[in-house]
Amino acid sequence: MGSKKRSTKSEAEVLEGQTDLATVDAVAVPSGKKIKMGNKSDVEMGDGVASSSSVVDSIKPMERKKKRKQLDKEKRRSNLENGEPQPKQLIVESKGNDAPEAVPVASSSSSCLPEFHINVFKDLASADSLVREAAVETMVTELQEVQEAYGRLENKDLVEGGLKLEAQKDDGLDNCASSLRYAVRRLIRGVSSSRECVRQGFALGLTALVATIPSVKVDSLLKLTVNLLEVSSSMKGQEVRDCLLGRLFAYGAIARSGRLTKEWFSDKDTHIIKEFMSALISLASKKRYLQEPSVSIILEIVEKLPAEALLGHILEAPGVPQWFEEAVDVGNPDALLLALKIHEKTSIDGKVSKLLPSPFSPSKLFSADYLSSISNCLKESTFCQPRVHSLWPVLVNILLPDTVLQAEDAASASNSLKKHKKGRKSSSSEEEIANNVQSFCDVVIERSLLLSSHDRKHLAFDILLLLVPRLPSSFIPVVLSSKVVQCLMDILSTKDSWLYKVAQHFLKELLDWVRNDDVRRVAVIVAFQKHSSGKFDCITKTKTVKDLMAEFKTETGCMLFVQNLINLFLDEGHASEEPSDQSQTTDENSEMGSIEDKDSVGIMGNGDFLKGWVIESVSSVLKHLKLDPEAKFRVQREILKFLSVQGLFSASLGNEVTSFELQEKFRWPKATTSTALCKMCIEQLQSLLASVQKVEEPRSLANALEPNDLGSYFMRFFSTLRNIPSVSLFRTLSDEDKQSVTKLLEMESKLYKEERNCGLGNDANKLHALRYLLILLLLQVLLQPGEFCDAASELIICCKKAFAASDDPDSSGDESNGDAAPELMDVLVDTLLSLLPQSSAPMRSAIEQVFRYFCGDVTNDGLLRMLRIIKKDLKPARHQEAGSEDDDDDDDLLGIEEDEDIDEAETGETADSDEQSEDSEAVVGGEGDDKDLPEDSDESDGGMDDDAMFRMDTYIAQIFKEKKNQAGGETAQSQLVLFKLRVLSLLEIYLHENRGKPEVLTVYSHLAQAFVNPHTTEGSEQLEQRIWGIIQRKVFKEKKLPKDDSMPLSTLESLLEKNLKLASKPFKRKKSASTLSKKKLTASLNRYKMVVSLAQNSTYWVLKIIEARNFSDAELQGVFGLLQAILEGYFGSKKSQVKSGFLKEIFKRNPRIGHQLFGFLLENCGNAKSDFRRVEALDLVIEVLKSQVPMNPNESNREAAKKFLKSHLQNLGRLIETLVTKMPEKKSRKTEVHKCCDKIFQMITSLDLTKTFLKCLGPDALSACESQLGPVFLKLKNLN
């Protein structure tokens, strides 16, 4: 054997040298012939022996030994051939660069074999698949012709004699021509090459050759493959790998050729299949990476062979039974795969008892015991990652057959919407599948893979992705079990995790799968939240659940989701037994119901946290949904019933109650619902009702029998449940609270009837708003017992008086008090204000709705109470003396310039009482409210009797009391700010609904005082910005102006004077300011700028009101005088803070003022004490001239403009004379003077007043104009 192997290897070296198939190998030729090897130089062969020097030069040192052996062999062959007649040998000829290489084969003296071109082997290694396929076709065709010609020869020995170029005497290819032998050997060696595309091409060639030419025997190929690709101890790792892979490809070629199947059909007792199986199993045992491809080759044969052959030839092949026997112990997934695939074709019970259950059935295959026994096989399938082993698709196909699943999924979708069903009867096959899936996920996924290495966790998610596309919706809770969800959350919570991208991919594929199916989406959301205690998004730092919830588009989907949430809430076993170790807190990415501001957050367990998420999410279903009103009402009704039952009531006996009146059964969790969860239900119930009221359409169904009024439905539902003996409220109420609840129910019922009877209109809106306020107040009484009884009583009284029914005996009795009774609207306003401090957001929304419809009837006293809340100081000044706020407004104004210090107040310094309110009184004082307040009233409590004062103090006291009882709560000051913000919302509504009314001035004056007074907004930028925004939007930018003729001009003049003085007030820094931080000084300066801006905008607004009243010039002398005084200060004092832009805007908006003050402006501009002020004032001059003297006057206004300008030519001349004689030195100011003069000259020229103007200039002025103004003045002079 040893000599034979050496001989075989020697021939391989002679023919090819190496397995590098791109190089054309040298072959022996007869004496005198040439051989050309690729691009190498021709090697002259003399007497069969090449020149040794040429060989040495052309090859590497490591190849010399091989080449020497080749030459020796050729020499021996040549000697042998010289002793007998020689036929033609296999010849490699070169007839030019492009001539094909041919291998003529010896024949008899009269003929020769067809040629075989060995250049096809180069094409077999091409990277182009089309080239490889063409080369295979050419090779097979030529070799088939050669073999056919060889078969027709009578004396084959004559051809063979001495020419066994590539053959061994015992290689098994005795009946093959030399060219065919050569090709077979070369193809077998070629499949062991690791070069690009070589294995593919040569394996394809070998497959086609074996399939086409029967002369190539399979048993010979098996022996030849082992011999040519033998692994020796001297081989390195890469060489060993190439040889083993070469065998694998060779065996694959034999299997794909179909020869094994033909052999069996021709002889059913053939041993070839067994030999082939034995060889493959032996190869698979050598290296792990050969195992799966070897089995895949066997599977190709299994697919082609009949069942009879499988039992006798595959399973009984030498080594196969032992291989199956050891599979479970060593963990061989490929043996399990092969056993399953064979079992698909024929029963093999008892043949592989350890691998497959006997008798075989899916239920036994997926039983917990069996899966545990083969767990090693399943775990070891990770070696082929990232590819999923072929075993898993086979198992999944057995686990979830397609035909059963389609029926199951359709049935689950149709039955998922049925409420309160224990379940539907399933067929035995469906139950079996469900049990199999449960067992598979439990044993394989959870206990075997998820508890193991990262690779096996990766495999677990890959297997789940195989299951998902075939999974019925009813199986989702089984697959997305607690351990799977926990593992997914733990991975996604850490971005640095090795499996993070794996988990991301799994989540993405899962979400794509549920995207268009509501049933699947609901099941996935419930699974995620159930096993994460409602914190999936929070822990994974994603928006998965939130985005899934936003994708419901239909009523069916919403109802299904709501029902599943209710079931989740009622399910006692929902809490995960293995909570994640991640943070249990929510963040900004948490899903729809992030639980905030609840007293129980800190002490909530996982169960309560999940229930809290259910409560908040169930009411958020409709947030992104657009449904028709009928469908939306049905969904809202289901949500309302759930929140009402779980939040307001509890069952006295058991946890189920049936209402015969409602024809419905209600359930509660077995464990008592905590008070915190009940409060959450009530709050969400309030939010639901408030949102309905906001978006509710006009009540077009006012006379229908059953309008879609959710509030009315709730009150009836509440009353019905309350009257069931076995149902009680979730908390015990005091007698006073019970009475309040009863009265609220009765009053709501009356208002509902009244609303139905009055049809559409403002009264219906008022009734509707009051009804919803009563409903929300009832819930507030249950939420905070003992705190809203008084407010409820007052609101009920207001409802009685506002809509006294003719059959109401109480209404006539209330009217008998006459004038002694307070105004209805005053009581209503007081009641609304008393509800604001402690009310929730939905309550405030209802209060605002009521106020919106009633604000047109609010009295002055009620309005002033609201305004004084806004003016309440957040930080009262020290040393405040009684009556210090009663000073007259004019007295306050006397100290503006001297005592005002915005810095100190803003930066937190303590100020005296006379400093804290100066700004506010400077903006607007008592005159603005003369029409509303008695003359002897002061600004803080004027018009308020003792009761009113007590009520306002009560509001503030409620705030203090509320936070005093809350440990760690916010300060009373911050609560007062919050209360002010809520009152501001009412005032904004009031301004919107009363546009153009004189009360707007009252609201404005108080808001302006509150804004300017630093203690009113102390420490609250939000409050300051809110007041600023309301004044800007609802007062200054409002198109409708207060035009009531009853408003005296003196009031407007006083308001204008105060705003002008505040706009001109300088920014002062006291000595203490030097110690303040830069940040505080910047804040003070910014506030000063805002106050000045407010004063300027107020001035524009007041002047706009005055202009709209159409007063005569005589009546407006006081207004002109105020503005003239401001101009005097502007020109007369360098310290004046009045901005020229402010004055310019006044002249621009009010041309009438410019017309009156133009002469005064020209005179003072010329007499200005500084060049800066004089040049700056030129903009004012030009602005007035633009409004009075247009650049292109038409006939209608030309005379008026000419008359105006002519009357001021003298003053213009003096101004220009002053400008040119006192020309500023600064270049920029000099440019401004030139521009101004040029514009004035153009206006004069356009009105033909040039000559008159020049006469107004003296000789000195003329010469100065020529020298200073140059071309500008000369142009005017030349036009004369």
Question: What does this protein look like?
Answer:
- The protein has a 3-stranded antiparallel sheet with strand order 1-2-3. Strands 4-7 form a two-stranded antiparallel sheet.
- The protein has 1280 residues and is mainly α.
- It is built from 62 helices and 7 strands.
- The longest helix is centred in the C-terminal third of the chain and has 31 residues, at 1078-1108.
- The N terminus is likely disordered.
- Keywords: Nucleus.
% residues in beta strands: under 5%
Indicate the mean pLDDT.
Answer: 77
**Quaternary form:** single chain
**Percentage of residues in helical conformation:** 55-70%
* Major beta sheet summary: 3 strands, antiparallel
List the helices and strands and how they pair.
Elements: H1 2-15, E1 34-35, E2 43-46, E3 49-50, H2 52-58, H3 64-82, H4 120-124, H5 129-152, H6 156-160, H7 178-190, H8 198-212, H9 218-228, H10 237-257, H11 259-266, H12 272-286, H13 291-304, H14 307-314, H15 320-330, H16 333-345, H17 362-365, H18 368-373, H19 375-379, H20 391-399, H21 402-415, H22 428-449, H23 454-467, H24 476-479, H25 482-492, H26 500-514, H27 518-530, H28 536-540, H29 544-549, H30 555-570, H31 606-618, H32 629-648, E4 649-651, E5 656-659, E6 664-667, H33 675-695, H34 710-722, E7 727-729, H35 735-758, H36 762-783, H37 789-802, H38 809-815, H39 824-835, H40 841-854, H41 860-871, H42 889-894, H43 896-899, H44 902-906, H45 913-916, H46 918-923, H47 946-964, H48 972-993, H49 999-1012, H50 1021-1036, H51 1049-1063, H52 1078-1108, H53 1117-1132, H54 1140-1149, H55 1151-1166, H56 1171-1188, H57 1195-1207, H58 1209-1221, H59 1227-1246, H60 1250-1255, H61 1259-1269, H62 1271-1279
Antiparallel strand pairs: 1-2, 2-3, 4-7, 5-6
Helix pairs in contact: 1-3, 5-8, 7-8, 7-9, 8-10, 9-10, 10-13, 12-13, 13-16, 15-16, 22-23, 23-26, 27-30, 30-31, 30-32, 31-33, 32-33, 32-34, 33-36, 33-40, 35-36, 35-37, 36-37, 36-40, 37-39, 39-40, 39-41, 40-48, 41-48, 41-49, 47-48, 48-50, 49-50, 51-52, 51-53, 52-54, 53-55, 54-55, 54-56, 55-56, ...
